[in-house]
Design brief:
The complex is a heterodimer. By secondary structure, chain A is an alpha+beta fold. Chain A has 2 domains: 191 residues, Penicillin-binding protein 2a (Domain 2), CATH 3.90.1310; 340 residues, Beta-lactamase. Chain A contains 20 helices and 23 strands. In chain A, the strands form 7 sheets. In chain A, strands 2, 3, 4, 5, 10, 18 and 19 form a 7-stranded mixed β-sheet that branches. In chain A, strands 12-11-23-22-21 form a 5-stranded antiparallel β-sheet, with helices on both faces. Chain A has a 3-stranded antiparallel β-sheet with strand order 1-8-9. In chain A, strand 14 and strand 15 form a beta hairpin. The termini of chain A are far apart. Chain B is globular and about 55 Å long. The chains are: A alpha+beta, B mainly alpha. Chains A and B meet through helix 1 and helix 2 of A and helix 8, helix 12, helix 13, helix 14 and helix 15 of B.
């Protein structure tokens, strides 16, 4: 055993050495204290601010989207609650093992790829308290399975959201669908306050009136702990629900129109000729909007996009059809206004018309004989209008067609409208590198050849004839209301142009249209409705790809029109045969006959 | 009434300081865990550990510390064995194996290592007092410290290993080593740090990088540090008040009942509370160093200064870490942090200090 007492000198040396140690320790403590002083007193306010934003989070609440109602306030599009599954990155940030376990569990439960979940989670990590949406519209059975495993799934949250619901499937293309904002949209809409994950109208009215329908998202501030649990609600930013759209649409008429068109491909448009309000618009085939209500499955999307009948395109404003004999209204107007003909002018129809060696036939092979303008409209004699066309020439035909609104979009409050096409010599020179032949004029005067119009343009044209010459901009928005129904905005009807036609000219056309339906020998007799005088013009558009398209434009009552209807039935053959009965059905429903 | 001799010689100042720090620790641990159903019982466990620690303190006070020093080498040998064993079979936790799970407490051999190395150094340096001023005389003592340090680093527990370095230097210094010898060794150690970088595990490198730039990885590795700094800084002069710190109460700081307990103190009690605690520690260290300087023999003064340096190093490393001055290592704050091994070790240390004091020369 070793025992060494310290000698006094050694004792002094030891004390000296320990003094140095103590001095070093004092310096270090002074440094620590200085650091604390700096952090807590000098920088204190900054840290306190950080602590505030650290524990306070804004929990966003999505504003319910505005309703879409018909003119009688019947609901066409509303919202239904839906549950989404979210995963908050925060509780898993510091525990890779747990995170992997949760990812694996969720992959099994949701039937998703674990790698995809990992990727989404990683994208969300910069904002660890904002749940990353993994699945939308989650069903009951899955919810119960999740509930059972809740303890093993930290960070998993159920997000209450709402999705679009449609009490009745109607006016699919016009309504359009809602979908999560795309990267491209985020770029253009970001400055307007749109954020990632927002639902945005992608087509139709949902797109055009998105800013009306979307409302203002709110939220509340909560203190959250590091596990992401909400501890205390701090302050609310109220949700401002989206405003409602009251449409000009008449659900009853819309339903009748969809039923009347049935399984035919084509379009039906019904307008109020007095103001341009669209009462019904059908494009068939259509698709199921509810499939888009949350997130459409890729395979469903591919099926829709690849369908040969193009269910996604809105034939009402994108379908381009040669107007056929319906265009004779324009030819008549051009003839009368230019003085090339008078209402009393007659031409001979021998069933065929020759331009040098080229034969142009009338639909009636034996011919109409000597025929007046009125009878030519009633019976839709082609040869009569060949004569008129050749007298007025292409430029005047072109001008009159443009005056009737053809060749330019109507300006309806829907996206993606086509212009249609009204050809002239310059156009043909430019696109076909060929001169305009008299044969082209002949074909154009009966609405064939290069002419293309949308069903909406045809309805607009019929409305203008019906109301005495005003071309109203067709529109679907009647008014905007708030949640309580109070009117916020009610746009006035707009006249976009006036027909350059005299009252006599229009009277002649209207008389022809009335008799085309109601007089013996009229081509539109199948549109006759007992008790209401319907006026109309049939058309048959040559279709190089198959059976001719049938069309029919009309209005009623003939003396004081309140409804104008345009019908196009693809491959429907003669307009009088397939299109006119569809219009008839609309008038019956509308006038309660 | 006669007070037993053993009681009369207890340094009440030192005991009061220990009890005061323990009590403050309990308050802070309560604040950190009281709302948590999973951790709430830790307050009671800490109370129990405090009592157990007092028993240990009493035990190490009453025994003969010279006997303890005599046992240093066998203890040292068994320590190396234990450290090797824990590497092989210890519980895995946060990517490292440090513990033996003994039921009530997780026994951490690295805590024991700190004490045993001090004992071994005290023994060697008194046995070879004549070589203390030679450079060659430093080889064995440094080796005595470095072997367990290397084993502990392998666990890997860099922090615990590094606390032994100042202990070894101070003990060498107290034993009579020349200043420039020590400085040369320190310089050599610093020069070999690139080697250490190569030996580090990924997470250790990450921690070091995090220390250099915590903001770069706000929610990854830098999270603890940033949250801790926000907590302390937002405490201000007077603090948020007991149980009122949003950072502490809302669990933004992981492990805030043990490694990061100081951030609870800083947030809820402010600079005043932190100054009080720093003052208590300083008082404790000054008292302890005075015990060292008045020890009856060299073993006593070596033991006391080694122990004091150990506790002081832990305090400095822990506070330095929570305030962002030093890298984040798993070093607990003596007497304040929750944790069985840690509390026991410090109470044993205090017991030995009291023991040395009991035998000290009368003033």
């Amino acid at each position: 055993m070793v025992w060494r007492s310290l000698a006094p000198t050694k004792q002094d040396a030891l004390q000296g050495r320990l003094k140095l140690v103590v001095a070093v320790l004092l310096c270090v403590f002074l440094l620590l204290w200085g650091r604390l002083f700096f952090m807590q007193v000098v920088d204190g306010p900054r840290y306190r601010q950080q602590a505030l934003t650290n524990s306070l989070r804004l929990v966003p609440q999505r504003a319910p989207r505005g309703l879409i109602l018909d003119r009688n306030l019947e609901v066409i599009a509303s919202n239904a609650p839906s549950l989404s599954l979210g995963l908050m990155p925060a509780p898993l940030l510091h525990d890779p093992d747990k995170r992997e376990e949760v990812v694996q569990r969720l992959a099994g439960l949701l039937g998703q790829d674990a790698e995809a979940i990992r990727k989404k989670l990683a994208l969300g990590e910069p904002r660890p308290f904002a749940p990353v949406r993994l699945a939308t519209d989650v069903g009951r059975s899955l919810m119960m399975a999740l509930e059972e495993q809740r303890d093993q799934l930290p960070g998993v949250v159920v997000i209450e959201e709402s999705k679009r619901s449609y009490p009745r499937r109607m006016a699919v293309h016009a309504l359009g669908y809602v979908g999560e904002i795309t990267e491209g949209q985020l770029e253009s809409l970001g400055p307007k306050g749109y954020r990632r994950g927002d639902l945005v109208g992608q087509t139709g009215l949902e797109k055009v009136y998105d800013s009306v329908l979307r409302g203002e998202d709110g939220g509340y501030q909560v203190q959250v702990n590091a596990a992401g649990r909400e501890q205390k609600v701090e302050g609310r930013v109220p949700v401002v629900p989206g405003r409602n759209l009251v449409l000009t649409l008449d659900a009853r008429l819309q339903e009748a129109a969809e039923e009347a068109l049935g399984e035919n491909s084509g379009a039906v448009v019904a307008m109020d000729p007095r103001n341009g309000e669209v009462l019904a618009l059908v494009s068939h085939p259509d698709y199921d909007l509810s499939a888009f209500a949350n997130r459409i499955l890729t395979k469903d999307w591919q099926a829709l996009a690849g369908d040969e009948r193009h269910p996604m395109s809105d034939r009402v404003l994108q379908g381009l059809y040669p107007p056929g004999s319906v265009f004779k209204i324009v030819t008549t107007a051009a003839g009368l206004e230019s003085g090339a003909i008078t209402p009393d002018t007659t031409f001979d129809c021998m069933g065929i018309y020759w331009i040098s060696t080229w034969p142009y036939r009338c639909w009636k092979e034996v011919g109409h004989g000597s025929i007046s303008l009125h009878r030519a409209l009633v019976e839709s004699c082609d040869v009569y209008f060949y004569h008129v066309g050749l007298r007025v020439k292409v430029d005047q035909l072109h001008q009159m067609a443009a005056d009737f609104g053809l060749g330019t979009p109507t300006g309806i409050d829907l996206p993606g409208e086509s212009s249609g096409l009204v050809p002239d010599a310059r156009w043909k020179e430019k696109t076909q590198h060929m001169p305009w032949f008299p044969g082209n004029t002949v074909m154009m005067s009966i609405g064939q050849g290069y002419l293309l119009a949308t069903p909406l343009q045809l309805a607009q044209l019929a409305s203008a004839v019906a109301n005495g010459g005003d071309i109203y901009r067709p529109h679907l928005l009647k008014r905007i209301t708030d949640a309580s129904g109070a009117v916020l905005e009610e746009p006035a009807p707009q006249v976009s142009r006036r027909l350059p036609c005299s009252a006599d000219t229009l009277r002649a056309i209207r008389r022809g249209m009335t008799d085309a339906v109601n007089a013996p020998g009229g081509t539109g007799w199948r549109a006759r409705v007992a008790g209401v005088d319907v006026a109309g013009k049939t058309g048959t558009a040559q279709n190089p790809h198959g059976e001719d398209h049938a069309d029919f434009i009309s209005y009623a009552p003939a003396e004081a029109p309140r409804l104008a209807v345009a019908v196009v039935v693809e491959n429907g053959g003669e307009g009088g045969l397939t299109a006119a009965p569809i219009a008839k059905r609309l008038y019956e429903v509308y006038f309660g006959k | 009434m006669r007070i037993p001799l053993a009681w009369r010689k207890v340094d009440l100042t030192l005991v009061s300081l220990v009890l005061a720090l323990l009590a403050i620790g309990l308050v802070l641990v309560y604040s950190a865990v009281h709302h948590s159903p999973a951790l709430g019982h830790l307050v009671w466990k800490q109370c129990g550990l405090g009592l157990l620690g007092l028993a240990a303190l009493w035990f190490f006070y009453t025994i003969d510390y010279k006997g303890l020093v005599q046992l240093a080498y066998p203890l040292y040998a068994s320590l190396l064995l234990l450290l090797a064993l824990v590497l092989a079979v210890g519980s895995q936790s946060r990517g490292s194996s440090r513990w033996f799970d003994l039921g009530l407490v997780h026994f951490q051999p690295s805590e024991m290592a700190k004490l045993v190395v001090i004992l071994a150094l005290a023994r060697w340096l008194t046995d070879h007092a004549r070589d203390a001023s030679k450079l060659s005389g430093m080889v064995v003592p440094l080796g005595l410290a470095l072997v367990p340090m290397a084993l502990i680093i392998r666990q890997p527990d860099l922090g615990s290993a590094m606390t032994l370095a100042p202990v070894a230097f101070v003990m060498l210094w107290v034993a009579g080593a020349r200043l420039w010898h020590l400085l040369a060794v320190i310089a050599a150690g610093l020069a070999s740090t690139p080697l250490a970088w190569l030996m580090m595990k990924d997470y250790q490198r990450r921690r070091l990088l995090t220390f250099l730039d915590p903001e770069a990885d706000t929610l990854g590795a830098g999270y603890n540090l940033i949250q801790s700094k926000i907590a302390i800084g937002s405490g201000g002069l007077a603090g948020r008040g007991f149980l009122q710190g949003p950072q502490s109460q809302l669990k933004f700081i992981p492990m805030h009942h043990n490694d990061f307990i100081f951030s609870v103190l800083g947030e809820e009690w402010g600079l005043l509370g932190a100054t009080l605690v720093l003052g208590l520690y300083l008082f404790f260290f000054l008292r302890a160093f005075s015990i060292a300087s008045q020890a009856r023999d060299q073993q006593g003064s070596l033991l006391a200064s080694g122990i004091t340096t150990l506790v002081a190093t832990q305090v400095v490393i822990n506070i330095g870490m929570t305030t962002g001055m030093l890298p984040v290592t798993g070093i607990t704050l003596p007497l304040l942090s929750y944790g069985g091994s840690s509390v026991l070790l410090i109470m044993i240390c205090a017991g030995i200090l009291l023991n040395v004091r009991r035998d000290s020369r009368p003033q």
